[in-house]
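idk why but the lab printer keeps eating my pages so im just putting this in chat instead. protein + flavin-adenine dinucleotide:
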Amino acid sequence: MKTEECEILIVGGGPAGLSVASTLPDDMPCIVVHQDREIGLPVRTSGGSWLDDVQRLGIPEDMYLPIRQSDAYTGGIGVTINLGPHVPVILHTERLYKWLAGLSDHKARQLWLGCKFTGTRQEGDGRYRSTIRDRDGRLREVRSRYIVDASGWHSAVLTSLGLARKPERLALGIEYEYPLGRNRPDRALIFVGDEVPSGYGWGFPTLDGTFRLGVGIISPDTDASPRQVLDALLETGLEQRFGLDLSGEYTTHGGILPSVPFEGRMLFGNVIRVGDSANFATPTVGEGIRVCIEFGRQLGEALGRTARTGRRWPLRRYEWRVRRRLQIDYALGFVVNRRGATFTQAHWNRTVERLGRIDPDAVAAILKSEFPPGKILRMGWHTALAHSRARLRRLRQRLARQGAASSGRPDR
Ligand SMILES: Cc1cc2nc3c(=O)[nH]c(=O)nc-3n(C[C@H](O)[C@H](O)[C@H](O)COP(=O)(O)OP(=O)(O)OC[C@H]3O[C@@H](n4cnc5c(N)ncnc54)[C@H](O)[C@@H]3O)c2cc1C
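predcted complex ->
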């Protein structure tokens, strides 16, 4: 069997793995193995993001479509969400991922497409010997000092080493992609409630002149498959209810991402995780691409320094930065995720009605799973106040009962 030596093996050629490769030193030998035959295809994601983030990340303008109107629906209620200065965009993910791959074309990086990582073991000298199966079923070996697990929800490397388990809770998504037809080229919608149990649905135009309609549900919170949910929805006269044009042939794509609490550990010796294998997608709506690119780039820089000098602090700083940015926000976001999974239609009615009224910063904060204290205060002071009043009332009642018991008086 042929054995290839390199410094860094990256498993997974999604936005996380490709971003790591893009910031490694030009001369650092690196191999990216990717089980799909082409970067960015098949499509397994929707590509919703935010204008300020994609601009900050330097993503070229011809890779995203700005959305000017966002509507939310539940039951018979529909509202337009005021997002103020926060402009959602729809990324052209195939184009974006190919662009990300191109950023390391000039480097000492090989890209093995149609090649699946199947396992690894650490040898006496500390290096990893990994087995890769190519598209013709031939086995190849790669010896590397570091491995980056960027294999998405599969966590292929950590799982093969027994360091992680497949997530117990998964978000399963499916989309039907139609010709744009009479749909507006700048309007997106989300829908929630009993028709999309334990999840939500969406519809949006794309840069390709198509319209994607999709749902994401959480397994095992519901037994239904996403396809069943989407097909059932289509039978409810979605076109009339949401003002959509769903005529013409459609293509189907689907994907999976973890829906479990975020854990802050990124380093497992010389195996480092990034992206969905580290649960980077937001717990509120499952948006991960911008987070994967940002931290993927940081990991590439850190790993380059560590590989050069043998010092571990750059890698530790990468882990620390991920924790600092995501740990608290994602814990709060996960509370929203779990709470949403138990919502009744009445809860959704109230929530969607409020979405049409509340502060744009607060809506964006929930959608982005970003909860800095100022925004929490603005979002939650009514609720917090109501909770405090209820707590005070309960405390008063308890004290009254205790007082009554000690003085022999009955409870009031
Ligand atoms: C239905 C759905 C809708 C989504 N919508 C959005 C959205 O609107 N906006 C947004 O920002 N995010 C969205 N996300 C999340 C986003 O797609 C992920 O957060 C992001 O793709 C994670 O990037 P990644 O590089 O970590 O993993 P991935 O994109 O999953 O890439 C990992 C790659 O590794 C490959 N791989 C896996 N195992 C192996 C192996 N053993 N050997 C070799 N290669 C392997 C896989 O083929 C895969 O292509 C959505 C996800 C889903 C499922």
